[in-house]
Specification:
The protein is of the alpha/beta class and 131 residues long. The chain is built from five helices and five strands. The chain has a single domain (7-129), classed as Cobalamin-binding domain (Rossmann fold, 3-Layer(aba) Sandwich). Helix 4 links the parallel strand 4 (89-94) and strand 5. This is B12 binding domain of Methylmalonyl-CoA mutase.
């Protein structure tokens, strides 16, 4: 019997127009055998949560460089919980100050990957933490 592949939604919330890092991560996840859906740039939290629901994903991987992570990441977690997606692993990445990471985790972000994190580390975290 075939094992079900992990489905990951890679999303760029807010007005951040830089997506090179998100595309690198998306490609690495795909190469590791995950099914990857990339939402493209400038998505609202509502669009991301709805796409995650429609695509029946296991993971939402958020990428943000604009500094709005303390507002956008928790809003996405909240919307996912409202849509009964508490089993979806939500991770974030980008230029996020170390001081902001504990607060993001307290809102439901499972892990935050900052610049310099290897794609292997991200892949292993997802494999170990998907329900």
């Amino acid at each position: 019997m075939m094992e079900k592949r992990i489905r990951v939604l890679v999303a760029k919330p807010g007005l951040d127009g830089h997506d090179r890092g998100a595309k690198v991560v998306a490609r690495a996840l795909r190469d590791a055998g995950f099914e990857v859906i990339y939402t493209g740039l400038r998505q609202t939290p509502e669009q991301i949560a709805e796409a995650a629901l429609q695509e029946d994903v296991n993971v939402i991987a958020l990428s943000l460089l604009s500094g709005a992570h303390n507002h956008l990441f928790p809003r996405i977690v909240q919307l996912c919980r409202q849509k009964d997606m508490s089993d979806v692993l939500i991770v974030g990445g980008g230029v996020i100050p170390d001081a902001d990471i504990p607060g993001l985790k307290a809102t439901g972000i499972a892990e935050v990957f900052t610049p310099g994190t290897t794609t292997g580390t991200i892949i292993e975290f997802i494999k170990a933490n998907v329900k």
